[in-house]
């Protein structure tokens, strides 16, 4: 027995040896069911499009924020000179003059200096005199073993022209003027002319001393 007007369909079968009932639930394509499916799909699609629209709006907001943030960072980078990448900003700052302890060690007898004293001298000169770090590390330690700090007052002559130099000088503080002497052929009077100004880090004297 079956009926097309009802939603479920009942199939009944009777046999000679027995009987059984089998229930089958089959969907029917009624106008009401089709309308329900269309409304259901319409609501689902509407929710989906709303979610897509919200997602696109969020992406646009995030993109706008990222662009504005990047633009502001670039302006801050160009306006703030301290943020600009400069290799000198990442180096250890060079002190203006050597410390009191380093001065004391450099004035001490080289024969009494310990390995720690020599290491401190190398570090101190490296932080104060940039040209000292241009020497190989082994040579830096060799100079630190024998170097002696000498201080000269203003106007003191360190080395005269024509005299043989007996030392290698490395300026660790102050400046040194270099004058050239010229003799007047008529009067045989010598006049001095400034030819160079040596600043901290400059060296003069016996160059062979740096080959220690």
UniProtKB/TrEMBL annotation:
The name this protein goes by in its record: Cyclic nucleotide-binding domain-containing protein
Superkingdom of the organism of origin: Eukaryota
Region described as Disordered: spans on this chain: 1-22
Organism: Rotaria sordida
Cyclic nucleotide-binding domain boundaries: 131-205
UniProt xrefs under PANTHER family: CYCLIC NUCLEOTIDE-BINDING DOMAIN CONTAINING PROTEIN (PTHR23011)
Compositional bias ranges of the Polar residues kind: 1-20
Residues making up the signal peptide according to the UniProt record: none
InterPro entries noted in UniProt: cNMP-bd_dom, cNMP-bd_dom_sf, RmlC-like_jellyroll
């Amino acid at each position: 027995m079956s009926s097309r007007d009802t939603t479920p369909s009942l199939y009944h079968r009777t046999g000679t040896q027995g009987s059984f009932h089998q229930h089958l639930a089959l969907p029917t394509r009624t106008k009401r069911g089709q309308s329900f499916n269309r409304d259901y799909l319409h609501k689902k699609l509407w929710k989906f499009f709303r979610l897509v629209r919200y997602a696109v709006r969020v992406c646009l907001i995030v993109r706008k924020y990222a662009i504005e943030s990047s633009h502001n960072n670039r302006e801050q980078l160009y306006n703030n000179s301290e943020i600009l990448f400069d290799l000198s900003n990442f180096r250890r700052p060079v002190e203006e003059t050597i410390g009191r302890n380093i001065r004391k060690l450099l004035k001490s007898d080289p024969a009494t200096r310990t390995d720690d004293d020599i290491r401190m001298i190398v570090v101190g000169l490296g932080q104060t005199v940039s040209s000292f770090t241009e020497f190989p590390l082994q040579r830096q330690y060799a100079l630190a073993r024998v170097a002696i700090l000498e201080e000269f007052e203003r106007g003191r002559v360190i080395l005269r022209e024509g005299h043989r130099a007996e030392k290698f000088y490395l300026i660790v503080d102050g400046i040194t003027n270099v004058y050239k002497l010229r003799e007047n052929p008529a009067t045989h009077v010598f006049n001095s002319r400034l030819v160079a100004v040596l600043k901290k880090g400059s060296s003069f004297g016996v160059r062979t001393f740096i080959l220690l």
